[in-house]
Specification:
Layout (H helix, E strand, L loop, with lengths): L1 H12 L5 E7 L2 E5 L2 E5 L3 E4 L3 E3 L22 E5 L3 H7 L14 E3 L12 E4 L2 E8 L4 H7 L3 H7 L6 E7 L1 E3 L6 E4 L7 H11 L4
Parallel strand pairs: 6-7
Antiparallel strand pairs: 1-4, 1-7, 2-3, 5-11, 6-10, 8-9, 8-12, 9-10
Amino acid sequence: MIFSQSLEVIKNKRKPMKIISTNIGARKEINWKGKVVTTGIFKYAVQEPIFLDTESVREDTICNRVHHGGVLQAVYGYSLKHYDYFKSLYPALDWKNGMFGENLTIDDLDETTLHQGDTFKVGDAILEVSVQRNPCMKLGIRFNDMKIVKQFWNTTMCGVYFKVLQTGFVKVGDTFEQIKSCPDNSTIAELYVTKRIAKGMN
């Protein structure tokens, strides 16, 4: 009863997150300063529903499975609200949803309030908040400027990886219904800051 009541409080306090764009990417080879780099970070929006599988999004390209994809990093979500900050730093870029390599562009995803283990029903799928996204040089390639990597690290706007507990299709307009709350676990922002400190970046 207490658990169900706490979930009810959460639902009443927080407007459900909503999918603004669903994005997938194709394998792309980029000549970066004389070196050919293969990446799937160049995502583009699709109009049809996408299928969230246990280790990746169907039809999406993952070129480095050591750092992307897998059970804990099956789906990457990023907040549309974060775009404004980075647009101010890179106003000349051709901005489109999927710019950060996310599969789901979400209207208002807040890393400071999402805890590891929080679980949501969205579309036909059930997703569990798993880990933070740590930026790598591929983000620099996407922005054509490696400064973005440090700038990204210096915020808590890292986005969220989801574990897929139940596979299924999701589409633009689907909302996240929270079905499990784990307030005693670390938030995604806390995990991100801990990782940043461990890398000696503070």
